[in-house]
Amino acid sequence: MFGIICVHSTKEDGRMPLKICISGLTAVGKTTIAQALARRYNAQYISASSLLLKLAQEHDRALGTAENINHFWLQEKGKDLFTERERNFALDREIDQGMLSLVEASKNLILDSLTLPYRIAEENNAFCILLCATLKQRTDRAWLSSPTMPKYLLRKGIKEKDVRTRKILQALWGIDIFRPRLAKYDLIISDGGLGKLFNHRPSANEEITIKLEIFSALLDIYVHLVEPEHIKHTMEELVEKCRQVYQRCEPIIKVFPHGFLSAENLMGITWRLRRRGL
């Protein structure tokens, strides 16, 4: 099912492909952000959860289809599939191995995966992002697309999904999604600081806009490092924009590649070897 997997680590013209990995718990807002980034950077968006459901449906036609992946996991059929996943890790193992292979695919990709940041090699060309939010914030966000479902049921379903996902990934890969290892990510954004940033409860559009501003400031530098011929601005211009965004948005930034705040620090750095120099 992973037809786009390729063993080459560069494109046919020799350029390093973009790989942006977005992680986070249910209803943290990954899909909206990932799809916007995919449009901006001409990349394909691939979600591990969507692939998992698709693979499960191929094995069991009775599962039917689901327009909203997160809502499916909150339904009885989704809970039954969780029970099967807890008994047999084959589906999760296949999806996670496939996502890992995609890091070296010769294609620009936005990858939505909880496990990928932990399983890729230390020297890699992926930019790894973690989005964080409280259970209440995630419940409120999920309710926007399911206003007919009582919030207490959404909250209960999301919490149960988190706990069961944690159990599977701990058993399969030793990953505790409730205690993320900060060093595995290049950027971590937490909704906990949104109140300080806006001085009011921001709308969904305000949240998305400010996060995309942060991501684009950083990812434009990332693109400069991996595809310099496609950047219309100098590194100095990109770094200055990054500084301004960081100063303004610091309340929601928990982990940040501080080397991006100095053009001098970026000289001679390749993204794959960034952890040695940034």
Describe the structure.
With 278 residues, the chain is an alpha/beta fold. The chain has one domain (19-277): P-loop containing nucleotide triphosphate hydrolases (Rossmann fold). Helices cover 51% and strands 10% of the residues. It has 13 helices and 6 strands. The chain has helices at 30-40, 48-59, 69-74, 76-87, 90-102, 116-119, 135-145, 151-173, 194-198, 204-226, 235-249, 263-266, 274-277, and strands spanning 19-23, 44-47, 109-112, 126-132, 187-190, 253-255. A 6-stranded mixed β-sheet has the order 2-3-1-4-5-6. α2 (48-59) crosses α5 and α10 (204-226) packs antiparallel against α11 (235-249). The radius of gyration is 19 Å and the shape is globular. It starts with 18 loop residues before the first strand and ends with a helix. The model is unreliable at 1-14 (pLDDT under 50).
Assigned CATH architecture: 3-Layer(aba) Sandwich
Main beta-sheet annotation? 6 strands, mixed
Compute the CA-based radius of gyration. 19 Å
Q: Give the DSSP E fraction (strand runs of 2 or more residues).
A: 5-15%
How many E-type strands? 6
Average of the residue pLDDT scores: 84
Quaternary: single chain
CATH topology: Rossmann fold
> How do the helices and strands follow one another from N- to C-terminus?
EHEHHHHEHEHHEHHHEHH
Offer a concise description of the structure.
The protein is of the alpha/beta class and 278 residues long. The protein contains 13 helices and 6 strands. The chain has one domain (19-277): 3-Layer(aba) Sandwich (Rossmann fold).
